[in-house]
Amino acid sequence: MPVNIPADVGAGIEAIDTPCLLIDLDAYERNIQRMARFTRDHDLRHRAHAKTHKSADIAHDQMAAGAVGVCCQKVSEAEALVHGGVRDVLVSNEVVNPHMIERLAAMARQARVLVCADDAANVDALAAAAARYDARLEVLVEIDVGAGRCGVAPGAPAVALAERIDAAPHLAFAGLQAYEGKAQHVHDFNERRARIDEAIARTRDTVERLEQAGLACDIVGGAGTGTYAFEGGSGVYNELQCGSYIFMDADYQRIAMADGRPIDDFENSLFLYTTVMSKTKADKAICDAGLKAQSVDSGPAVVFGRDDIEYIGASDEHGVIRDPDNVLRLGDKLRLVPGHCDPTVNIHDWYVGVRGGVVERLLPVTARGMCL
Amino acid sequence: MPVNIPADVGAGIEAIDTPCLLIDLDAYERNIQRMARFTRDHDLRHRAHAKTHKSADIAHDQMAAGAVGVCCQKVSEAEALVHGGVRDVLVSNEVVNPHMIERLAAMARQARVLVCADDAANVDALAAAAARYDARLEVLVEIDVGAGRCGVAPGAPAVALAERIDAAPHLAFAGLQAYEGKAQHVHDFNERRARIDEAIARTRDTVERLEQAGLACDIVGGAGTGTYAFEGGSGVYNELQCGSYIFMDADYQRIAMADGRPIDDFENSLFLYTTVMSKTKADKAICDAGLKAQSVDSGPAVVFGRDDIEYIGASDEHGVIRDPDNVLRLGDKLRLVPGHCDPTVNIHDWYVGVRGGVVERLLPVTARGMCL
Questions:
Q1: What is the CA radius of gyration of chain B?
Q2: Which chain B residues contact residue A14 at CB under 8 A?
Q3: Which chain A positions have a beta carbon within 8 Å of B15's beta carbon?
Q4: Which of B78, B106, B142, B237 is most exposed, with minimal Cβ within 10 Å?
Q5: Size of interface A-B (CB pairs under 8 A)
Q6: Above 90 in pLDDT, residue B3?
Q7: Tens digit of pLDDT for each residue in B358-372?
Q8: Burial class of residue B15 (count of CB atoms within 10 Å of its CB; 0-12, 13-18, 19+)
Q9: Which of A104, A292, A348 to mutate to test the interface with B (most CBs of B within 10 A)?
Q10: What is the DSSP string of A232-298?
């Protein structure tokens, strides 16, 4: 199979094949340091969410800056990072498929492995698999703090499930998964804050009931890039799971701008690099980044640093760019900010890390497509 | 790296790990035969579009049924299929990046390679690369027949570009690329037909002008699954490029139903297989297929064969299923019809081919993610 690495280390940015993912290494490193500073200043742990980047290299950069480990969403994603040297992984999701429970339990022989649960029969299946491998699985009870997705109800149902985990020989009750996924992308500041206040109240109540039952929460985890300051200041959450902060994307930038956050907050460090591949019309250009180079679920990409042109539509392999002043030329290269970073990253095999216009690092997307 | 093949040949369908792509082999084979019959009955060639499936195995099945070769949209995609044994490939798109022009020309030493062009300087670059490899590249002039995307204007501009190709020693003028991409998904039959009538008129005029200039079109190519019967009956187009017919998807099925097409037309043969992974609410279930298992650009997935439940929302790794009668249980498996097959396929590494409830074939997505 031909090699499809979009660039060589040492090449100039103009020589990069497109479409591909570009990391601005300066902005990326500043984002890592900013999150490390926030969690350090607030006496919190950061368990960086690797669902965003799916890269063992990036996970190691985050841990070198202080992250205690990573979160993953899938067993196969976690395996890829464990093979890449990460030794502390929370699968922040339920694992139900029997074969994947088997792989999860086996992985716990190699690394510290944590997983979430919201069902009693699933806890029993996790316990049985852990016993077969003589492994120790740490289990968080996932509570539904408002997103209406996975998770048992806070309060008594969470305590009952925690007791079941605590009673299982090869399982250890590790705490609560209390992520409010729906609040992350709420554009209105006050509504977002109100949703997290509600999540914090439900979580606090559950932590207290668990304590009354004699069950301590080593981890009270949750929070994402849209809300981490709220959970981080709550006094209840002790482990933040932010992922997107490292790259940002068009939707998270719109939220930051609506909040009026300072410009020294998280920066766009991930770009979809694209080339103008057809220019037969005066008022538009066609670029080579379409639906097979990005996910448009959260709106289209934004052309970085340009307000004279606009990315207005994507088909499978093409992007349409409005070019009212006819400034673009065949072969021109542009940086697009993806509408939504996570599912866009999941399409690509490589990141091209650039600094000062030169390719400095090539990072494989270690767990690309690992959805099992 | 652990193996992430979702199933073993011979396994029962219930043992397949999810989320993954499932092919109903019976429906798939009927689709191939139907398209073969249509093109045979209308004395047309079929150059199957491999952008849909990106699979060398499927390309060989299509060619075994009569397809003359395949279309690809990218050089790296074409390379993957050439390495998989396909020896007649049209890159039905412009190639502008200098490094990829180099790879295109080099590939023409191994296989019949055709490419599209809509720019004179690009034709010169193709000619120079073909000369460097002492290769022969066949070039189609892409004309814009209404989609407003790539392509020169029909008529005189197309003739001028064809003459430039014809004059270049290592290039051969092969005909016209006249694909009306925007018409494929127009839901109103009369509007769709009118758009293609317009495309046919522009194409016919250009073919005649080329003949007057002494340039014969070996290929007049275009058409997709939404409109192939129109181009196929035009007497102008001689090579159809349908791709999605082999799988269908939720949007193409909506169009077929709106047209009142007979039920022996193309069938859904591709499914996103998913498992209920959380069931803590009476009125909904959470499944394991979200944005990292499908593209939602053309609307959400449809649960196949069920009107008692509905797939209503996707986040990165989760799908929300409305379950008003509380019929779903943890671990239940469902077949989803993807909203849009092409960019959904591009996320997955494997197809699991099933017949009679048993896994019969595992097909790698040979050119997955090959977007260069």
A1: 22
A2: none
A3: 99
A4: B106
A5: 192
A6: no
A7: 999 999 999 999 999
A8: middle
A9: A292
A10: HTSSS--EE---GGGT--HHHHHHHHHHT--TTS----EEEEEEEEEEEETTEEEES--TTS---TT
Q: Minimal Cα distance from A181: which residue of B? A: B315
Non-local CB neighbours of B201 within 8 Å, separated by 6+ positions = none
DSSP at B153:
P
Which of B344, B145, B337 lies closest to B236, judged by CA? B145
Per-residue pLDDT reduced to its tens digit, A67-86: 999 999 999 999 999 999 99
Distance of CA A73 to the CA centre of its chain: 9
Helix residue ranges, H only, B133-282: 156-167, 189-212, 228-232, 250-259
For CA atoms B6, B8, B12, B15, give the dihedral sign.
Answer: negative
From the list A18, A292, A320, which residue is nearest B97 (CB)? A18
**What is the least distance, in Å, from the CA of B262 to any CA of chain A?**
28
- Is 2.70.130.10 the CATH number for B25-249? no
Q: Give pLDDT, residue A265.
A: 85
Instruction: Out of A118, A121, A297, name the one closest to residue B291 (CB).
Output: A297
Model-level ipTM above the cut of 0.90: yes
| R_g of chain A computed on alpha carbons | 22
Interface probe, candidates A51, A93, A97, chain B, greatest B C-beta count within 10 A: A97
For residue B263, pLDDT beyond 60: no
Residue B244 CB-density burial (10 A; 0-12 exposed, 13-18 middle, 19+ buried): buried
Please list every residue in chain B whose beta carbon sits closer than 8 Å to the beta carbon of residue A295: 291, 295-296
Q: What is the pLDDT of residue A226?
A: 92
B103·A330 Cβ contact <8 A: no
**Start-end of CATH 3.20.20.10 domains in chain A:** 25-249
> Is residue A3 predicted with pLDDT exceeding 80?
no
Q: How far are the Cα atoms of A172, A285, A335, B341 from residue A306, in angstroms, in the given order?
A: 52, 14, 9, 33
Say whether pLDDT at B264 is over 70: no
Q: Between the CA of residue B152 and those of B85, B199, B224, B227, what are the distances in Å?
A: 33, 13, 20, 22
Residue-level pLDDT at A254: 84
Strand partners, B348: none
Other beta carbons less than 10 A from residue B260's beta carbon? 7
Q: What is the pTM of this model?
A: 0.96
Question: What are the residues facing B198 on neighbouring strands?
Answer: none
Q: With contact defined as beta carbons under 8 Å apart, do B24 and B335 qualify?
A: no
Band (pLDDT 50/70/90 cuts) for residue A2 is low
Class of domain B11-22+264-364: mainly beta
Chain A residues whose beta carbon lies within 8 Å of the beta carbon of residue B315:
149, 181
Nearest CA in chain A to B74: A317
pLDDT band at residue A264 under the 50/70/90 scheme: low
Residues of chain B with CATH 2.40.37.20: 11-22+264-364
A117: β partners:
A141
Q: How far apart are alpha carbons B22 and A71 in whole angstroms?
A: 29
Amino acid in position B37: R
Q: Residue A148: is its pLDDT beyond 60?
A: yes
Contact: B4, A288; criterion CB under 8 Å: no
Which residue from B minimizes the CA distance to A73? B317
Reply yes or no on whether the pLDDT at B242 is more than 60.
Answer: yes
Q: What percent of chain B has pLDDT over 90?
A: 94
pLDDT per residue over B160-170, tens digit each?
999 999 999 99
* A305-363 residue pLDDT tens: 999 999 999 999 999 999 999 999 999 999 999 999 999 999 999 999 999 999 999 99
